[in-house]
Amino acid sequence: MIFRIGTRGSKLALVQSEWVKRELQTRHPEVRVELVKIKTKGDKILDAPLSKVGGKGLFVKEIEDALLKADVDLAVHSMKDVPAELQRGLRLSAYPKREDPRDAFVSRHSRTIEDLPQGASVGTSSLRRSAQLLHIRPDLHIVPLRGNVDTRLRKLDSGDLQAIVLATAGLRRLGLSDRITAPLSPDSVLPAIGQGVLGLESREDDQQTQDLVTFLNDLETELATRAERAFLKELEGGCQVPLAGYARVEADRIVLDGMVAELDGSVVLRRQLTGGKDKPEELGIALARQLKAAGAGRILGKIYGR
């Protein structure tokens, strides 16, 4: 049996997909797994912030199209790139155990955000990150930074920037943990929805694929991600909005933190809510509505021009 995995061609995407491939072949030695590299719109547009060219979905649509046409059997995504709504006919079939969800502060000369010199240039194209950084240090100069991890690190090493912020999970998966100056605590910088999580996506009617990958599912990761994504969906969030959500399972409960901010970081609204493990989506929706009532609705309306 030949089993085809659709993946982006970036080094990180391939590392992630190769891991899934190895796990599948170890568990199912009768299956021959092949990787199919697919270039997405997000891979082609590197000279503009994601918030200006479409936001979430830019790194998954072409792969989802290939799934729907049965050109591939499974897609491996970084969950933080996956829109709240999947294309009709597709489903998330497994959520492997989450890697470290935190953001990573990376700098050559400063140990923390607080240590950066006045007016320091910090690279990130994430509105979520920039708003929270500016809330901590309004004097910082945020520089748009696109490209793969190596490209971003080279920009830092060239001396153009005093620091950059990346996902800890990506650096760890690439064997670059030594580049992390300090992980950023979720207490100060809340991670992106689904950060550190891989999403394995298949066709809804493809029971064979679902049966093949179900052993990779980690229930706590699934419940946390479902709560975060329900929060995202209720806020109609994408890359145009500085919002964040981070859930974790503690005993028989899910604890969910959520954040919506002004673009300039002048206002950061955060709330925490706890709910039962049996209703992760209800928890995400409830927290989103709490934040809307606290002023997030006004922020979102202004950003979306309503």
What features would you describe in this structure?
With 306 residues, the chain is of the alpha/beta class. It folds into three domains: 1-96 and 197-217, Periplasmic binding protein-like II (D-Maltodextrin-Binding Protein, domain 2), CATH 3.40.190.10; 103-184, D-Maltodextrin-Binding Protein, domain 2; 218-306, Double Stranded RNA Binding Domain, CATH 3.30.160.40. 35% of the residues lie in helices and 24% in strands. The protein is built from ten helices and 13 strands. The chain has helices spanning 11-27, 41-44, 50-53, 61-68, 127-136, 149-157, 168-173, 207-213, 219-234, 280-304, and strands at 2-7, 32-37, 74-78, 90-94, 103-107, 121-123, 141-143, 163-167, 182-184, 198-203, 243-250, 253-261, 268-276. The protein has a five-stranded mixed β-sheet, with helices on both faces. The longest helix has 25 residues, at 280-304. The model has no long low-confidence stretch (mean pLDDT 93).
How do the helices and strands line up, and which of them pair or pack?
Blueprint: E1 2-7, H1 11-27, E2 32-37, H2 41-44, H3 50-53, H4 61-68, E3 74-78, E4 90-94, E5 103-107, E6 121-123, H5 127-136, E7 141-143, H6 149-157, E8 163-167, H7 168-173, E9 182-184, E10 198-203, H8 207-213, H9 219-234, E11 243-250, E12 253-261, E13 268-276, H10 280-304
Parallel strand pairs: 1-2, 1-3, 6-7, 6-8
Antiparallel strand pairs: 3-10, 4-10, 5-8, 5-9, 11-12, 12-13
Helix pairs in contact: 9-10
